[in-house]
Specification:
Elements lengths: L12 H7 L4 H4 L1 E4 L14 E5 L4 E5 L24 H23 L1
Parallel strand pairs: 1-2
Antiparallel strand pairs: 2-3
Length: 108
């Protein structure tokens, strides 16, 4: 859900204090738990360590990210793979192709 227009975007005040008067090169990684903070133009160039529930993931802010939230760039769930019979068949074919390629390279 978007925030109402009259309130404006939510930018965490503590984050702005941490980057105030610093250059992106000298600041290093700025750790934060504020996943809902909107990336503002002042944050461009800085690297934030956004907490995903287990660890801090590095997020380098660019101009294209302005207006998005920090949490969008630090996924909280790890995708393993889709399971099932089709996936096993695809994995088997991929493995066979790798073996064939290795044999061909060895023979050449």
């Amino acid at each position: 859900m978007s925030r109402s227009v009259y309130k404006g975007p939510f930018v965490d005040e503590r984050l702005l204090k941490k980057i105030d008067g610093k250059k992106p090169a000298e600041a290093g990684v700025i750790k934060t738990w504020s996943r809902d903070a909107v990336i503002s133009p002042e944050m461009v160039g800085f690297t934030f360590g956004v907490h995903n529930g287990r660890e801090h993931l590095s997020v380098q802010c660019t101009e294209e990210m302005v207006g998005h939230r920090l949490g969008e760039f630090a996924p909280t769930k790890k995708f393993y793979r889709h399971g099932g019979k089709m996936q096993k068949e695809l994995d088997q074919k991929k493995k066979e192709a790798e073996i064939a390629a290795a044999k061909a390279a060895k023979a050449a």
